[in-house]
Amino acid sequence: MIKARMLLLPGAFALVLLAGACTGPSDGGAAGDGAGVAGVAALGVEHAEYLDSVAGAELELVEPGGDGVWREIRGGERVLRLEAPPQRIASRTLATDEILLEIAESDRIVLLSPFADDPAFSPSADAARRLGRVGGFSTEEILAASPDLVFAAGFNSRETLAQLEAAGVPVLVLDDHESLAAIENNIRVVGFAIGRDREAERLVEGMRSRLEAARERAGARTAGLRIVHYSGGVVLGRRTVFDDAIRYLGAVNLAAEHGLVGWPRISAEQVVLWNPDVIFTDSYGAGAAAVGVPDGTRAAGLGNVVHLDGRDMAAISHHVVGLVDRLADALVRAAERIEAAGAEDAAAVGAERR
């Protein structure tokens, strides 16, 4: 049994797993579409509102399915029945683009999202270009590919998802990206839905191995470091994969500690009052400068303001390990600066006493 969140499209044949939470802006796409849950933020939708629209449910993966069906994915009162492994798979979201490029046979992928071959967003861009089946978000283009299974996300256009359902296309929307464990589950769901369970499990095992190595590198010296992600006036609180990654590494996300959820806006003055040890920020343009990072904090004074690549921040697939790797390394460097500053202070006090 895999825990998930679910929204069922009205009418015929669709099973939609919903929730959400990544970071960073989207770059284009129709209203409701995006590279990640980040697309919702870029469109001005409040994250709390987005999360409140989701009802909880359990998802059950059944093999073999009933009535001679190959596999079933059950949730709530709906059942998605797959009569055979899908042979024409379309993806409408970057997360499933990246997972499919890793575990699916290339001849079974008929369409990827517009973000798949964009190196500003995806570490899998080269593989997507080689495949050469990157498309748009329009219903017409999706239907023209004649898919027998479409992977989508809750931040894709509701109208598009409803149109696909009305056309009789099975739609599976993975959108619980609030934690590292949820991303692992999503990989397993994709593998189950396309009959590539072993490949999915190997991908999860590789992801977990790198995550554990990152936590080991961070070690006890980074435990309890007080951090903030602050970019463009927005912080990242609870129910974001960033927060889960920070807690996994043993540090403290001050926005979450103060009860903030998602990506709310706060003032630079509030960040100064929190006085974090480390401030993370990000941007999506190559060499772009971070905007609005406040001075007057311990982090700024020690040089512990860390710029993250927007591509890492958009990762809601196995590529999230890149974010965790870089967070771990940044926290270690921050801890070293704090230790060095403490040693200098102690030496100064000793000199004064002499």
Fold and architecture overview:
- It is elongated and about 70 Å long.
- Strand 13, helix 12 and strand 14 form a beta-alpha-beta unit.
- It has helices spanning 38-42, 47-52, 94-103, 125-131, 139-144, 158-166, 180-194, 197-218, 241-248, 254-257, 268-274, 298-302, 310-313, 320-353; strands at 2-6, 15-16, 55-62, 71-75, 78-82, 89-91, 109-111, 149-152, 171-173, 226-231, 234-235, 252-253, 278-283, 305-309.
- It folds into 2 domains: 2-207, Rossmann fold (3-Layer(aba) Sandwich); 218-353, Nitrogenase molybdenum iron protein domain (Rossmann fold, 3-Layer(aba) Sandwich).
- The chain has 354 residues and is α/β, with parallel strands linked by helices.
- Helix 7 packs antiparallel against helix 8 and helix 8 packs parallel to helix 14.
- It is built from 14 helices and 14 strands.
- The strands form 3 sheets. The chain has a 5-stranded parallel beta sheet with strand order 2-9-8-6-7, with helices on both faces. Strands 10, 11, 12, 13 and 14 form a 5-stranded mixed beta sheet that branches. The chain has a 4-stranded antiparallel beta sheet with strand order 1-3-4-5, with helices on one face.
